[in-house]
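The freezer alarm interrupted the setup, so I double-checked each line after restarting. Inputs confirmed:
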Amino acid sequence: MRKRTTTRATAPPADAAGPGAAQAPVQLGWLGETIAYNLRLAQTASFQAFSALTGDLGLRPGWYALLQLIGDNPGVSQTALSLATSRDKSTLTPLLGDLERRGLIRREPDPLDRRGRRISLTEAGRAKLALLAECAARHDARLNALFAPEQRQHLVALLKTLTEALTTETPPPESGPPED
Amino acid sequence: MRKRTTTRATAPPADAAGPGAAQAPVQLGWLGETIAYNLRLAQTASFQAFSALTGDLGLRPGWYALLQLIGDNPGVSQTALSLATSRDKSTLTPLLGDLERRGLIRREPDPLDRRGRRISLTEAGRAKLALLAECAARHDARLNALFAPEQRQHLVALLKTLTEALTTETPPPESGPPED
DNA sequence: ATATATTAGTTGGTAGGCAAACCAACTTGA
DNA sequence: TCAAGTTGGTTTGCCTACCAACTAATATAT
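Predicted 3D structure, all chains:
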């Protein structure tokens, strides 16, 4: 939502903290040039936009990645989902419970490991996933439309590089005990 | 993202879905190529890495951007901070209260608008900011080290484009609201 | 086989996020 | 001046996230 011109179109001297200035645009300074902060802003914006799309349905945005991954990997374990979504396994517990309660997924005991639960979609789950995938596709299209194909590709590659680097080399401090 | 080497060199046949296979790597499929999902993963990874740096001090990572922005814009309003950080104003209420309680910021009434509060750093706040800025600088350096200077610049530009596009054109649905 | 370590998943506690409802103060218009 | 609308902040309620600790089952070592 835009907020410019809401107060005044005259754009009074932004440096002056005068009464008409209301909320000055805030100078981002150094932060505004960092990868990390821009990453945060972009992610937030993307999530918000996606939420706006899914909000129309009664579907939570956080469900989508989960359903999609389950759909693509029937029988996955919760731990695997946790890793794939970069969320703590304990975060998934109530979430999956909710999905199960709504009949979107099935959690059957793994016959080969009685601790584990093999997760898969139900028919209803597949249907919901189709709806969410629709939103996701629109969202993706919207993002893609912002860039030239090669730019898009480049951006994804850069993001992957970043993720990869940070997740694999996470512990650089102490005497590294790499392989035992 | 690959997750090898994170746990151990156990390396049981990863393809076999046998009991020893534990969690299969999960196929990300379509998701893994989208901007949105990679954005999410990258942001999460970045945040985690930054948290690891700040965790050493008794300082919450969420404080940093706030303190930095306040430092750069003494006298800002909470609403302005809310916009600059892309966080809801109600999110900042307890956070700023906390910072004030710890003596890091000051919230003095705006003489020109008795609703508003002009926020600025205290000396202690400046000191804490310096510590956090140190972490931020290290984090930034780490991220920057992953890319060539022009790549970095490019990435930031792409992210800005994305954020900008999503935040300004948020409401495209209904018949465009004719400005009154 | 039995003790020990690992792993899958859940629980409880806490922190941070949003949205909606609310109050107080400012703005505007008649 | 006074009513209606807007805006800055706070409160409340809910959701999502993490972590640490726990249980149950599996794996490993002796």
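Quick read of the result. The CA atoms of residues 63 and 85 of chain A lie 11 Å apart.
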